[in-house]
Design a protein that fits this description.
Elements: E1 2-3, H1 8-26, H2 31-39, H3 41-44, H4 46-49, H5 55-59, H6 61-64, H7 66-76, E2 91-94, H8 98-105, E3 107-113, E4 118-124, E5 130-136, E6 143-146, E7 149-153, E8 157-163, E9 176-185, E10 191-196, E11 202-206, E12 211-216, E13 219-225, E14 241-247, E15 250-256, E16 274-278, E17 283-289, E18 292-298, E19 301-306, E20 311-315, E21 322-327, E22 331-338, E23 341-347, H9 359-366, E24 374-379, E25 384-392, E26 401-405, E27 410-412
Parallel strand pairs: 9-27
Antiparallel strand pairs: 1-2, 2-25, 3-4, 3-26, 4-5, 6-7, 7-8, 8-9, 10-11, 11-12, 12-13, 14-15, 15-16, 16-17, 18-19, 19-20, 20-21, 22-23, 23-24, 24-25
Length: about 425
């Protein structure tokens, strides 16, 4: 079990110990006076009784971490990480072999929760226990991996993160350090899936305008494609275009909640109006799905999350038949593969009309089960859930998940702590 406790009480203890350490260190230098504290034990208890006053040493804790910062500079001129404040009501617990599986696949995980505005990086500590690192970005959703980092959408921006460590280097045990290099202001487009095509261009699902789009320095976005049944590029979320699958480095398939061409029209078709569209042909190849998300092409098969029924499955690209492979107890969004394993993100259905009245409700009731929030690892050969990570507390909804190959323990820089001020990288000198 990986638990995220409130660290302030612990910090007080450590701070209260420091004054004691100073007194014991001063005793040898003044032997006659050393007896005074011993004789006046009631006064020695005052610091313990005044624990609130011990907050001053705690305030100096950043200064106490300077040795760690020096160790970091020696490694990479990048400061040691300090995660954003973690809420005490958040708890993550893995299945018995979850950490062993992470070690076996030699990878780490990332997932976003727009409800809490967090991106989480999950890896392994040196002792084999779970490492959990998080940063705060308002309404973060889509994740698109690159060779040395990732793109991530937030409320009105697209961020590019780049790993600033070379192979074999680390910061305080972290072997990946992702720095937000660029932020493109898009405006609130309700960006969902994000992918990187073969040319290195970021392609994202612009849900508000019902299109695929990319970035341009002079504009919020540039439209690339839209479904044939959408008659106008308008900020109306007409079909709830949400998922994007690449094949051979090109946008290949997208998912929509309904084939509708009016503002917010998809909400009336949530139970069975979902479609998968072939991007190149701009033709619907599968219908009758329930709020489909996260299409992916893996091992020659088209996979999709039929979120409204709680099923992960494949779609026959010739006749559009959906074949369930596994049931997951939650509203599914976010799908990533490594070998025969599928990583699926689960959410608890929200208490509003969008997530209620779906077939998933009856599917859970028939199994006498409650919806869960967390990550499920599905063996696609058997359909079994072989590992999982349960999330309890303030986080109840996930959007995207990603598997980061070759990374054991990743971290990221954020904007709420000071390390980013010292994360300075110098390129090769150039001629004027």
């Amino acid at each position: 079990m990986a638990k995220k406790p409130a660290k302030k009480p612990a910090a007080k203890k450590a701070a209260a110990a420091k004054p004691a350490a100073k007194r014991s260190a001063s005793k040898p230098s003044a032997a006659p006076k050393a007896k005074k504290p011993a004789a006046a034990k009631p006064t020695a208890r005052k610091p313990a009784a005044r624990q609130p006053a011990a907050k001053k040493p705690a305030a100096k804790k950043p200064a106490a971490s300077k040795p760690a910062a020096k160790k970091t500079r020696a490694a990479k001129s990048v400061p040691a990480p300090a995660p954003d404040a973690i809420e005490p009501s958040l708890e993550m617990s893995g299945s018995r072999q979850f950490t062993s599986w992470l070690a076996e696949i030699n990878a780490s995980l990332a997932f976003t929760t727009y409800q809490s505005g967090k991106v989480f990086l999950i890896g392994l500590q040196e002792n084999g226990r779970l490492s959990i690192f998080e940063r705060t970005f308002n309404r973060c959703m889509g994740l698109g991996l690159t060779d040395d980092g990732f793109f991530m959408s937030s409320l009105y921006q697209m961020w590019r993160f780049q790993n600033v460590l070379e192979a074999g280097q680390n910061i305080s045990g972290y072997d990946r350090a992702y720095l937000p290099i660029n932020g493109h202001t898009t405006g609130d487009l309700d960006i969902h899936d994000v992918a990187i095509d073969a040319s290195g261009r970021v392609v994202f699902v612009n849900t508000l305008f019902s299109c695929l789009a990319t970035l341009d320095d002079g504009f919020s976005f540039v439209p690339l494609w839209q479904p044939s049944f959408i008659s106008k590029l308008a900020a109306e979320d007409r079909c709830h275009l949400n998922g994007l699958a690449l094949e051979n480095g090109k946008p290949a398939y997208v998912t929509v909640v309904a084939e509708t061409d009016v503002a917010d029209g998809w909400r009336d078709k949530r139970a069975d109006g979902g479609c998968i569209i072939d991007v190149a042909q701009n033709q619907i190849i599968a219908r009758g799905l329930s709020m489909p998300h996260s299409p992916r092409v893996h091992d020659g098969k088209l996979w999709v999350l039929n979120s409204g029924t709680g099923e992960l499955g494949t779609v026959d690209r010739t006749d559009g038949t959906f074949q369930p492979v596994a049931f997951c107890p939650g509203y599914m969004r976010g799908l990533s593969f490594i070998g025969p394993y599928a990583l699926v993100g689960l959410s608890k259905p929200r208490e509003n009309r969008t997530f209620t009245g779906l077939p998933l409700d009856d599917a859970l009731a028939s199994r006498n089960a409650e919806a869960q929030c967390g990550l499920y690892v599905i063996d696609t050969r058997t359909g079994d859930a072989v590992h999982w990570l349960r999330i309890e507390g303030i986080v109840e909804e996930l959007y995207d998940v990603a598997i980061i190959p070759g990374a054991r323990r990743p971290m990221a820089f954020g904007f709420k702590t000071d390390e980013i001020r010292r994360a300075i990288r110098v390129g090769d000198e150039m001629a004027l």
